[in-house]
């Protein structure tokens, strides 16, 4: 089976697409309700993330001139907590 998150995302997009028929929207609602608990798919969470990649992203955020100081401070706190 394909990635459940992608399937749910496709059905949610279909429901909100003004160019799809009511019949197609109803089908997507039924699929979400019957197979995906109304579209509630668990996220991957932090357990599968590579700590080195996370640290690299935080360091990049700290040095990003487009981010505000509050965001940089939060990134530094998360990095220090690792």
Describe this structure in words.
It is a single chain. This protein is mostly helical.
Ends distance: 35 Å
Sketch the topology as an H/E string, one letter per element: HHHH
Helix content: 55-70%
Mean residue pLDDT: 87
For the biggest sheet, the summary is: none
Strand residues, percent: under 5%
List the defining traits of the structure above:
single chain; 82 residues; 4 helices; mainly alpha
Topology:
Elements: H1 4-16, H2 22-35, H3 51-62, H4 69-81
Task: Give me a quick take on this structure.
The protein is mostly helical.
């Amino acid at each position: 089976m394909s990635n459940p998150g992608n399937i749910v995302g496709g059905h949610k997009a279909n429901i909100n697409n003004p160019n799809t028929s009511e019949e197609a929207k109803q089908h997507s609602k039924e699929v979400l309700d019957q197979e995906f608990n109304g579209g509630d798919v668990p996220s991957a969470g932090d357990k599968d993330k590579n700590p080195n990649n996370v640290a690299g992203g935080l360091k990049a955020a700290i040095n990003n001139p487009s981010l505000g100081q509050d965001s940089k401070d939060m990134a530094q706190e998360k990095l220090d907590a690792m």
